[in-house]
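Notebook entry, structure prediction.
Reason for the run: the old model in the group folder had no record of what sequence produced it. Starting over properly, with the input documented here first.
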Amino acid sequence: MGTITRSFANNITTSGVLLPASLNNNSIANVTAYNASIATGGMKLISTQTASNSASISFTTGINSTYKEYQFYFIDIHPRTDGATFQFNMSTDGGSNYNVTKTTTNFQAYHTEADDQAGIAYQAGHDLAQGTGFQTLSNDIGNDADQSTSGSLTIFNPSSTTYVKHFIATMNNTQYVEYQTNYFISGYGNTTSAINAISFQMSGGNFDGTILMYGIV
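New structure, fully documented this time:
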């Protein structure tokens, strides 16, 4: 008991405050709530949408000033059309129009199943230079039963009315030509209006899969 008492005492200041360093998964059991003044951080699931032979999936609610960062997770996005491209765009009018001007960059690391090609390449054909079209997240996705794309997209401070809207994405894809590809996409929406809706679609045809939207506390 002496060792435990000394260890506990060493984590208390002279004014009786318990030091943050003393808090870990082994030190305090059965904690069910924290004082509201303690910032615990974390992810808040806001919305989940499942595509089932859908032309698009749009998030038109929940994107507001509550969070400074929003993350979207894509689970087994499977195109109905072989070789389709998974894309997204942003809206400043609640989803009436998805046409925010964007400047972006896109590169990939790839490796074939046959182990005869591998490398890293900038994808000039999948970036935008002050374009309003949908931004590529994952291209040439196969629609075999075992092919799909998954990954994540982060958008920073979409409700700002001062700054442009930065975003970054990472996707993993099984291409229709039997490539395994990792995509890295980043850029910004060149608007100081608040972004309040985001839409996802294929370049052609419908798709299946699950998309989750989180707010980061």
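Summary: The helical segments are 2-9.
The old model has been moved to the deprecated folder.
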